[in-house]
Write a structure and sequence with these properties.
Elements (H helix, E strand, L loop, with lengths): L14 H31 L2 H4 L5 H9 L3 H11 L4 H6 L4 H12 L26 E4 L13 E4 L5
Antiparallel strand pairs: 1-2
């Protein structure tokens, strides 16, 4: 994938153009992260982290890309994810692909029809069974650091 960045006259953009440009650029970021995830998966298959003496794939990614460990972990997660093709196609954002992978890691299963328990993942158009809840840390709002949390549901309704 080749990406060409052109000069954007930011101060001359209308509100609609500004929003469109932000959305377009986020799509580019998602597609680039998807390609990075595919390359990370390939590097792992080639055992590059081990050949370089890294303790783990995540450590290797963090060092090679000069990103935080959290970003490296997210990239490694997405590299093992079925959503990586959706990411490369620009159908989902990088953050959405990461959260979907986290849901899978805690035991969620994708469902194509509405859940009888009403457990959904807000905003993604995919329904999840009642065994896993996606909820805010407190009072249906993000925690103080702005992050949503995943937790196992204790009961299903």
């Amino acid at each position: 994938m080749r990406v060409w960045m052109e000069h954007i006259p930011i101060k001359e953009l209308t509100p609609d153009q500004t929003e469109s440009e932000l959305t377009r650029l986020e799509g580019m970021v998602a597609r680039i992260r998807g390609v990075q995830a595919q390359l990370i998966d390939h590097a792992n298959e080639l055992a590059l982290p081990r050949m370089d003496g890294a303790r783990s794939l995540v450590d290797w990614v963090a060092a090679r890309l000069d990103v935080t460990r959290e970003t490296a972990l997210d990239l490694a997660r997405v590299a093992r994810c079925d959503d990586v093709d959706d990411l490369v196609a620009g159908d989902v954002s990088f953050d959405r692909a990461v959260v979907r992978r986290r849901l899978v890691e805690v035991g969620a299963q994708r469902r194509s029809s509405p859940s009888p328990t009403g457990t959904t993942w807000p905003g993604c158009g995919v329904w999840w069974p009642g065994t896993v809840a996606f909820s805010a840390a407190t009072n249906n709002k993000p925690s103080r650091d702005g992050h949503w949390c995943l937790r196992r549901a204790t009961t299903t309704r």
